[in-house]
Amino acid sequence: MADKLNLEVITPERLVLREAVDEVVIPGLGGELGILPEHTPLISQLQTGILVYRKGAERQQMHVSGGFAEVGPDRVSVLSDVAEKPEEIDAERAQRARERAEKRLSSRGEDTDFQRAELKLQRALIRIQLADKG
Length: 134
Ligand code: ATP
Hints:
By secondary structure, the protein is an alpha+beta fold. Helices cover 26% and strands 42% of the residues. The relative contact order is 0.18. Adenosine-5'-triphosphate is lined by residues 13, 82, 84, 88-90, 93-94, 97, 120, 123, 127.
């Protein structure tokens, strides 16, 4: 019986995290997904949100956006478009991205890609929320 989860978070650019943890909460497309060792295997798509992982009493958070998570009895493998730990987030950059996205969303321009602007806004808001904790 596995009593730990090997959590791996990978983006197309880099390995963001590889750590043995006790619990992971994934921002799944259908809602939060709590994973403990010996969880039933599954694959879930990810939304833009906060992934939480716990080691003993210590809880850590991370921004993830897009991609999917694969869960096995002793591991959680996350393959995400972007992923950042709080200390890696540049809050001012996120604030600028937020302002740009909000401007685009309120511009009603014919050539505005609203879906893209909405995604950028959501990422910026999560980054701003997490940057304080970095
Ligand atoms: P920006 O316009 O500021 O580049 P963006 O929304 O275009 O933001 P993304 O497409 O979400 O950025 O991410 C592109 C890359 O930049 C990813 O590797 C992501 O981790 C990194 N990144 C984006 N914003 C930040 C930030 N505020 N702090 C740290 N890394 C960031």
